[in-house]
Structures are given as structure tokens and as C-alpha cells.
Amino acid sequence: MKVDLLVIGAGPAGLFSAIQAAENNQNKNILILEKNSSAGKKLLISGSGQCNLTHAGDIADFFDHYGNNSNFLLGPLYSFNNQDLMHFFKKRGISFRKARGGKIFPESNNASDILNILFKELKTRDIKITYNANVENIEQKNGLFKVQSSDKIYQSKYLILAAGGKSFPKTGSTGDGFKIAKSLGHNIIEPRPALAPVIIKNYQFRMLSGISLRNKETSLWRNGNLLKSWTDDLLLTHRGLSGPGIINYSRYMKKGDLIKIKLLNYNKKELESDLLKKIEREGRLNLVNLLIKYPIAQRLIEKILELANIDGSQNAAHLTKDERKEIIDIFSNLKFEIKSLANYNQSMVTKGGIDLNEITPQNMESRIVKRFFAAGEVLDIDGDTGGYNLQAAFSTAYSAGKYISEQL
Q1: Which of 29, 143, 167, 288 has the fewest other C-beta atoms within 10 Å?
Q2: Residues 286-343: pLDDT tens digits?
Q3: Are the beta carbons of 356 and 219 closer than 8 angstroms?
Q4: How many CB atoms lie within 10 A of CB 32?
């Protein structure tokens, strides 16, 4: 079967790139191959099914949310920004709401509304999706891509790879795109989970699962060296740490790294002075009742004292100098050693993928294989939570599809 453009993957990047490629090309034959029995499975679970489509604010602020590879997105994000993305759907009847922190959701809180708009656009442009089509082999010969799927051989002049990463494999994201790109000569930056909670070695806080640590200064250490520090919300889980202050920075984390959390907004000298004043004024209180005057959950305070072998029921005035020093040290520097990142079943996106040095950022075309394009999570791009990953998927898809529409 011969087509003008073949798209591999019916996620948001695949669907949107096909839609853009068909602009002003209604007579062109564009086909999407999808290995699942339905399209957009991962889109439907995004934002817990509510679809955090993008983020509010100036597009210039987006570049602080893609780790070390943000420069690659300069072209795509400015060519098709968050306002452009919302306008595309608003024009087709979708209204949006802004949630806490600037996250953008459809007013209906229903991801299927976004997917249905994409389906309608495919139908308008007569773009077909072939389901249960698992790509088994691709080769380029005589200026055409020969794509062998589980049931048919396709030929196409242009090829867009939008097969996703490896996160949430139940949705079909099992790394197929990486294998395809590699077979065509591309270097693959080693994939690993990103936007993932971390599992902590010898974790002692299992019973405190669900406790939030709001706006805490956190730092990441490796071999005694400070790698990065930031301030954000964290969450204690039954196996380790989560929350935006962990998952947004998990791209930098490795097994054996130390996470240090500053529980209070004091330096050690200030905390010692403040604690001594509290003891002087209210030393008759038991230690726990004195310490809960700080903005830390009582159960966490009790656990910290237990781990430090300090009696929380004693009068605060009886606290020894060494015990006081221990409390100050822990409150200033609660340490956790990373055992591992959570696996792909819990990570929202994949870090790694097609080496960006081998892709032209203006149009997503391969520098190695002419007329071969890549968009979405198959690229070595991972953004923070908050709509940044879907925005990158739509923007890279727009760049690829728009360019191809001018070539067809």
C-alpha cells in the first residue's frame, strides 16, 4: 500500500502531526499506524483523566521546565505556543480553566473531549488510522520508506515517528519508537523513568505516607558534591518521596544520591537560638508539645525523635545539649538515600530517546535520514509536570506536520 505520508503512533503527537500535514493537502493520502486497538490511550489518562493540556503564562517561562534540553524547543514552542494550542481547541468548541499553579485543563475535566476534537479533524481531512498495526521493520530504498507491519507492507515518501517513550507501558508505550529510530541509524540516549517518585533505601517513614511538606528547600548530593537545590512541595509515600519537589527533579537523580530536606526556614544558628528561646519560655512542656509549635506534622516530629533515640515525653527543659544539636541537625538536614527511581509503570514520562543532535529543531527532520521526522516523547525531551510534556508533543508535531504540508 502506497501513501504520501505515514505516521507511526496515534498519540497526541502522531494525530496532530498528521492533521497539520494535511492542511491544504486534502487530496493527499496520509495514514497513521497504531499498534493498539484504539488511539490516544496515554492522552486519556493524562492529568488523571482530566488532561492537563498545557500551562498558563508567557511561553518564555516554559524553557525553565525542560531540564538541559530546553534550547532544542526554542523553535517548536515559539512556532506553536500554549496560546496557539488553546486557540486550536477553543476554535472547535473547547473551553478551558486554569487550576492551581497555572495548569490548564478543559472546562469539562474530560480528556476524551480533547481526543474527540482530534478525531473530528482527522475525519475532516480524510486521514485514516490502521489499528493493531505493529511495525516490524523499516527500510528506505529508492527514495521511499518501506514499512512492514504485522499484516501489511506500506510505502511512503515521508515518515513521522511519534511512537512515544516507555512510561505507562499498558498504554502501548513500550519503547518501540526507540528501536525503530535505532534501526534507521539514530543514536538513542539511554531511556529511563522521569517525573517519577523515588524509592528510599532503609526507609523509616512508611507509616507517615500522605504527609505533605510544603515549600521545602531541597538539595541533591552525589559523592559529597552538591548537584542542585530547589524549593517546592514534597510528599512522603509508603516507599519514599514524591510530590512536585521530587518528580520534577527526578531527571537528575540516580541510585545512591542523597536528598537533603530543610524542614524549617532557619539556618542552624537561627534555629538553635529560636529553640533555646522556646525552651526558656515553655520548658515545662514535654518536648513533642514544644516542637509542634514549628510548622511540622506532629507524627513526623515523633518519628524523627524516635529515630534519634530522644524521649519526646520529657520536659523540654531537660533536653541535653547533644540532643538539642541532634534535633537541629535533623530539622535542618533530613537525609534520604535514593535506592531507585520508580519504574515505568509509575513514571509519567521517559527521559532519553532520539539524540536531539540528530534532529533539526525547526522541522523535526532527521539529520541522518532525509524525509524522516520525529515528534513527541520519542525524542530526548522530558518536561516538568503541569502540561509541559503535552505542549512539547503538540509543538514538535506542529513543526513536523507544517513543514511536510509544504512539501507534499
Answers
A1: 143
A2: 999 999 999 999 999 999 999 999 999 999 999 999 999 999 999 999 999 999 999 9
A3: no
A4: 25
Confidence band for 63, pLDDT divided at 50, 70 and 90: very high
Give the whole-angstrom CA distance, residue 181 versus residue 175. 10
| % helix, strand, coil for the chain, step of 5 | 40, 25, 35
- Residue 34 grid coordinates: 497504531
Cell numbers placing 145: 520508506
Alpha-carbon torsion (355, 360, 363, 367), positive or negative: negative
The secondary structure element, H or E, covering residue 31 is strand 30-33
Sequence-distant (≥ 6) Cβ neighbours of residue 385 within 8 angstroms: 52, 195, 244, 247, 248, 348
Return the H-helix or E-strand segment holding 323. Answer: helix 321-332
Cα radius of gyration rounded to whole Å, the chain: 25
Which residues lie below 8 Å from residue 330, measured CB to CB, with a gap of 6+?
A: 263, 304, 308
In angstroms, the CA 268 to CA 287 distance is: 19
**β-sheet bridge partners, residue 105:** 97
CATH fold for domain 2-193+349-407: FAD/NAD(P)-binding domain (3.50.50)
pTM for this entry: 0.92
- Tell me if residue 286 falls in helix, strand or coil: strand
Query: CB 274: neighbour CB atoms within 10 A?
Result: 15
pLDDT digits (tens, 9 = 90+) for 77-129: 999 999 999 999 999 999 999 998 999 999 999 999 999 999 999 999 999 99
